Records
---
Amino acid sequence: MRDAPALIEQYLPVAKLSAESYKERKAVSGQTLTGLGKWWGRKPLILVRATLLGLLLPQTDDAKADADIFLKLLTMDDAGLERRRSKPIKADKVLEVLLTLPPEQSRRYVMTGPDGQPMVRALDKADKDALQMLVFKHLPYAEKLTYADRPEHLSGPDKAAWKAINAHLGTQAQSLPELVEELGLRRFGHRPRVGDAFAGGGSIPFEAARIGADAYASDLNPVAGLLTWAALNLVGGGPEVAERVQKAQREVFEAVDKQVTAWGIEHNEQGWRADAYLYCVEVRDPESSYMVPLAPSWVIADKGVCAELVADPANKRYDIRIIENATAAQMKRAKDNGTVKDARLTPPNGGPSTPIRVLREQGSGLRQWENDDVVPRPDDVFQERLYCIRWVETYSEGGKIKTRRHYRASTEADQRREARVLELLRERFADWQEKGFIPSSRIESGYNTDQPMRERGWSHWQHLFTPRQLLVHGLFQYFGESEKVLSIGNQLLVYRLANWNSRLSQWLSSQGGGIGGGKATYYNNALNTFFNFSVRPMQALYSTQIVFNSDNILKAQVELKDARSNDTICDFWITDPPYADAVNYDEVSEFFLAWYEKHIPRLFPEWYGDSKRALAVKGNDAGFRQSMVEVYANLTRHMPDNGAQVVMFTHQDAAVWADLALILWAAGLRVTAAWTISTETDSALKAGNYVQGTVLLVLRKRISTEAVFEDELLHEIEQEVVRQLDTMKALDDSSEPNFGDADYQLAAYAAALRVLTANPIEGIDPEREISRPRVKGEVSLIQKLIEQAVAIAVNYLIPRGIERDLWLTLTPHERYYLKGLEVEAHAEYRSGVYMELARGIGASDYAELFGNSKANTVRLATPSELGRKGLEKGRGPMGGTLLRHTLFAVGKTSESGDPQEGKNWLRHELGSSYWADRARVMGLLTYLESMGRIEGAAHWQEDAHSASLLRGVLENDRV
């Protein structure tokens, strides 16, 4: 068993794991680690747990039992899901499910109501509980998760499950940490050590430590290091640490609030307290010479609050009037009369518009701010203006304390308070910069960091914050100095304050249910500058407090280190490396690092406070590929021969896979398995045509040194693809499928990589391939073989309901359409899946086959939607083919309601081949007819019925 293949090399419940990962991601701030601070691309904890257990669990000669035990350990089996059930199912859903059950199961719960419609009977508590469980059992897996806690919310399997687990594995564990240690001792002679050399937000080391492994985490970036340390030592420090950190945080808030109140900078003369400050940028219009306030819309709150610009000719500017309880007409004018449209100044007087680009160049041009600039100078191109404050009035009514909001234009008294804020900041500015209470570092040029410099002239990180923000955030630093654990908690609090309260916090009228609110700085992955932005006073900062649940974890270590020089030996390396510049972590994290770069050496004497941008592994050129080889060769050297690695990445391009194959091959690794898990929600990073899944590549040290020849590879790849697909199909469950269409396609990639990385290939030097420059349009041998593997898979996976003899006679585009319908039937609407399918089948110019090509809602056109488009031979992707004529005949039947019309078309167009092709046409019609039975395919109902009618007419047609 010591050398037995790991279970993850044979099986992973990808569909269920995808559903669990999606549920975890959709929890947003309810995720275990997100409360610590913003990081990009944290992997779901359930994915890490499944990966590590999959590496530790051995394969046995009973694959079905292996899979069942794996699900029990993850509490993803039926019994585990029932234990996780935590929310009641609503009555309408209960009735919907009951009506699908056999009468013997539902009759005790259903009766006929007064209106003649079925309804659920009145039940006592015991029967209600039984009914809830009955309905829960009959829900699809993903829908069950709506009513269930996440696996991490349970301590693990129950006693009954542990009995089955131990019997199967020959273990004696009663908890996940006990099992992890026992399996580690069996394989390595010690508790397994799990490493992550690109720790990022800390998901991998945190979950590894939580379920009982010794965790090692390293990252080049100190922001990532701090977040990972906090995950392991604050969240993982247990209830006592969590309470101490949160108590200290409350005390800091109280101290800052007391000081702000004493200064009188957030209260007006009526005693109201500020709830939001709204600013806009002003610029001189070269056409009218007016100072024009800039905003894409003057709607402040969707619930009836807007601004109106009123010309002040004497001062060549505009007054900004705030209107509460605005009429629909006033709201529409405010929405339509924005002064920035399509990156152009659109003046309120209706004069000529001017590109913002031109405005930056007027006068002496955009000035680069100096260190102590915290507001624009009078002669700067862009000025800033406080134009609205949302106040909260507290009053008593009927013996109860109540509050109400007021939106008011800025007054002279408000401007005096603004001046007081600036005065208070200037008194402390130099001292606070020296102590690191506010940023002082210059912004280093880069892809993301050039944006604020180019668009506003902000040259230092403190320029991204207003005086009020710098003063208040600095107070949190001033009052937050304490012992290490508490001080780190405070640094993370300031981290969150910075993200939610900067000059880059856009004001949106729809936030807060229509009362308006500010977005986070990093609502996407750019340093976007806005013409209208918000500042949060203390009232609105309380929501930024760090809230986290506590866990007691085992041994863990965090270092700041370049992955290329890592010298720690780990049994398993699980890494999520940067790839193809999806996020420039080094650049965007400097926004946060600027707030605590001087504190890190104090808190961690062995660490540094520099982002080490020059050393970051990034890009997609030869230098990047060579860096990746160095990283993974180093990790391979620091791994035992019976260890393994898992590399996580999110690309579906054959060229990227080919590069990765070369990288891993050159690093001395071989691929043993690959799985794809849907881990991404429809975020700014992954929406649209981007891949919404994470590929897990399982890797072992390559031992074979015997070279293979190119002509041997394709045959081996074909055999391996077929073996992989047969294995997956045997493990799949038609009622609750483990694998989707994308999984089968990507399995072909994995199979190809297994063959390509198993041995050296005669005539190919991976080091040379990696370092040489790419020629545009060039297809390497490795890429060609990978693409052929996908083609093998697509042709092997004939859609269910299509006979093989028929399939083999079809053109690539006919196959694409039919296979695409199967993809659609599986509720797969991501364009990347259809693009990958086209590559595998060899179909091009297929756009006109779509009924909807919008990202994440992609589907093929129905026969009626296609109409005559691309019907004739030589026109369109399927012109003149048997399938295209069949589709037109179905559409004709739908249009007329008479299947004879469709039959006559086929007889006329197919001519003398009609009788020979009739059986093939009937096979196609049978398949099209099945689309009418697909849930959610309402657009197919009429054409599916027409296909059925037409098939009947053809079946009865006689010479």
---
Amino acid sequence: MKYALKDYQEAAADELLTALDRASEEYKKSGEHQSVSLVAPTGAGKTVIATAVVERLFHGDPESGRTALDGATVLWVTDDPSLNIQTLRKMYSASSLLHAGPQLLTIDGAFDSEFLPPNTVSFLNIQKLRRGSLYEQSRTDRRRWSLWDTISNTSRSRGGRFLVVIDEAHRGTGNGSDRPTIISRIISGDPDRERAAAPVVWGITATPEKFQQAMAAARKPSRVQRGVNVDVADVRASGLVKDIIVLHNPQGGPAADTALTVEAVRAVREYEAKWAAYAESNNEEAPIPILVVQVKAKVSTKEVSDLVASLKDAWPGLTTDNIVHTFGEWDGVAHGHIALSSGAAVRYVEPHAVQDDRRARVVLCKEAITTGWDCPRAEVLLSFRTARDATYIAQLLGRMVRTPLARRIDDDETLNTVAVFLPYFDTKQVEAVAAAFHEGAQSEDVGASEAVTSLITCPRNPAVPEDIWETVTDLPTYTKPAQRSRSNITRLRKLAHLLAYDAIDEDAPMQANEVMLGALAARIESLRATGELDRVIRATTTVRMTATTHDLTTGQTKVVESDSVPLDPRGVEREYRRASRLWPDQIADEYLARGYERHRDLTTAKGEIIALTKDPDALGAVESTAATYVRELDRKYRRRIDALHAARRAEYDELREQSASAEETRLILPDAVTARPSENASSDPLHLYAGKADGLYPHTVNGWEREILDAELADQELVGWYRNPSSGRRALRVPYVDAAKSAVYPDFIFFHRSSGGELSVSIVDPHGTHLADGVDKLRALAAYAQQHGEMYARIDAVAKGQDGRLLRLNLVRAEDAAAALAVQQVSEIEDLFERLGTLYC
């Protein structure tokens, strides 16, 4: 792949490969047909995951030791030609091994073959298989083989190595009992016409129900089903999708259409200004936001002309050339331009091409946005459609969530939002869909973003002293360990190259190499000292010869051993290659070169690597050394890394998040955050962020939190406070002691200034003693306090005492921290607070 997959994408690719391997093997053994589904919300990068899987099927994966599936053949099926083109382009841009033409093939009029080509993804839209189509016919002057023949022949000849991929698999599969669809006929074959069923079917969808029902209901043949599911929470955390969809649902009727057009233009121009400011400060090319206008199903030339006029009136400098449409046909002409009453024309652009059309600023569409749309530049949607169906609305919104730079923007949270205006949508349905997004439901094809009906932008509070911002960004926080971590050897090499590329430490690659090769050499010397090295080298580079003699006279058999015979160079090389694959990032080859310089004997140097592989602790020891050096370099250059532009910082952040353990990192506080007001929201002063007009921060607090906040706000020395979120780069995360993938996110950080002018920081986390996770959270805070307590005046764990008053343990105190770390059961927490706790307020 040309770029590193997100953690959840890598995990999904691994699971898919395992599931497809099992499916292929079981079909080969038993002939039982198989199905595998990839279920992921819109915006998760399903095509990227699929590309990684296809790459490894065709070419293997040296990092995991996986070999290629010989003769693997993929037929990629959709009901939308535009979606096929888009997918092919995505695969080509994402893969470093798959090439358009030889391995990414669009089935067109020139294709006429008995079998689909192996080691190739062949893209097919089902229109080509409709009755009467040229492709559907065979034995004609134009064709030797129909596509139905080709697919059936490939099924029979390749067996479990033939994968039929159904993209957007919730569409077109039928339910197994209705009249068969084209896709269901590809899957199940046609016994009457001697067409074979697809051995292995791989469905890709955000809504798996219809696909799974079709697989279960199919009687001929029945299929073993396997599924790989991508968690919505993982997609939300990845930065690939917008955090928030802001749903505006004005109810003004047709008279308000022009006013809403003006408002939508204002919104997209505001995004444009924010992106320009971000790009200038980070030395990046600014994304060019697009306004998407969904018109009615039946729209006249006059209505389009009026809309274009309104758009141009509201947007200075906008020309007709900046406005495009994606209608399937206009005035009876497929993909034709729209001639306006002014004499100008709105040009047609295929949906998949909108993203790369830099002239396009406004896109007029009908249904294209709900079927296969992928345009990360789409920042604002104005829909004049009437829709009361929750599924339709969710599909529409799910297409508007991809981030323009494929990462979350830490400098300004408003750039992680998308604005949607739905004046003709049913209000209750919009609210229901927003709730579905919030819950992360996938049953209605919702995306991974959160949808809200109101949002407040809160910039940095000018009432907060400036030195707080420098102090808060120095507070230690921790990354979440990766589900599928990368080798620390690989991480060290990547970090070293990043440091050299950014001119932070140009010697880092050489020094990192010395550290890793030194660790290898040290391990070899320890094996040499015990005599194990020589023994293993002899055992792996020689062949012990034995001969068995049978005395025909006495009937006795005797085994005679002769001297060992050295392996020939090819035999040693074979053993070395097998061993070197277990060492990441070609480090074994580098050691071989160094070993040759030392020994002038390749066989001895190769034998050392082979011997290391036999040592069960060797790889772990080198990995540990690499991990330690990664942490040293990260701490040493943290401030210089933080001073880089956002795109460069993002690479370092991604590397930290690929670790197997929680890595210390920094808080990133943006210039503005978003707040979600509600009926029960409070508004309080001195928060680090505040609403533009009133200087207050809107947030929701429970009873305990209200008591704590009131007590702190009453303190004359309080100069600022921060409501810590429960995820994201601006959250202070404290990993559990025994399960670093889980963590506590303390509720509050308070800043006080003493009469002498000294600024102090305190963490306060109210948490019930009766809750199941109470032990883990308390111990996590205690361990954090033991490591970083010198940076804080207080790290308070707060609970209610028996008399109902709030008690606190200040874990900065060594006695309190040690006692908290010793807690093992929830029942012990209450006793600890009664014994050591002091009144909070």
